[in-house]
Amino acid sequence: KENNNIFVDDLKEEGEKRPIPNPCRTFLEAFELYPEIMENIERVGFVKPTPIQSQAWPVLLSGEDLIAIAQTGTGKTLAYLLPGFIHMDVRFLFISFICVPRDEQGGPGMLVLTPTRELALQIETECKKYRYKSYKSICIYGGGDRRGQINLVKSGVDIVIATPGRLNDLQMNELISLRSITYLVLDEADRMLDMGFEPQIMKILLDIRPDRQTVMTSATWPTGVRRLSKSYLKNPIMVYVGTLDL
Ligand code: ADP
Ligand code: MG
């Protein structure tokens, strides 16, 4: 019951469980093939991956869905952002052949849903700090300048960071298309549920292609979050840090 223990579980049935990728002990083990990402990490001066990152990166880079449960401040943002950037690259090869119809290839590829405006802005700051290639990110949240957000969407974006309420508003009014999204993050799922965002999340998810990669993060693992993960993730691997009542 030590607090920094890390656990990994394949949520598939007994007998169908996959081999779980080894955790990375260094940044290089995860991002050797991506010098631009290595440079950004070195510039910021981090010494080593946090426990959740060391297990999340190999899982996400192998293309699997992931549930990451760990307390606030454990580095979950980079745990999903960096593999997301890499996904954006691979996606261009993938979508032009089979995945996304030609007329939908121009839209955003990555969506992060998060409960509050403050979190959305923080995530966007991280996104810019680790800017990868020329991917354009925008923040969509309630109370913000709606017209400005709509114009930014129109000008073309790759990464959308949004609170569910405002994104659902733009979606319902056909001011944003979500059909090109292939990497989806449900960040702080427990807080989004506590804030009553489940109906908006449901409607947003109706427009997102089922053959996406999905990540869910949460600080806790209550019934509501389990239900959400069952509905929206495909054979996820679960990584959790600390102790958990399962
Ligand atoms: P969480 O989403 O789990 O609450 P954050 O992703 O916001 O946590 O990260 C908390 C802080 O830790 C941020 O300031 C972030 O820059 C920093 N951080 C992230 N990864 C590392 C790392 N590998 N080493 C040191 N600090 C890190
Ligand atoms: Mg976070």
TrEMBL record:
Superkingdom, natural source: Eukaryota
UniProt motif (Q motif) ranges: 26-54
Ranges for domain Helicase ATP-binding: 57-239
Domain DEAD-box RNA helicase Q: 26-54
Family to which this protein belongs: Belongs to the DEAD box helicase family.
Name used for this protein in its record: RNA helicase
Species of provenance: Dicentrarchus labrax (European seabass)
Lineage of source species: Eukaryota, Metazoa, Chordata, Craniata, Vertebrata
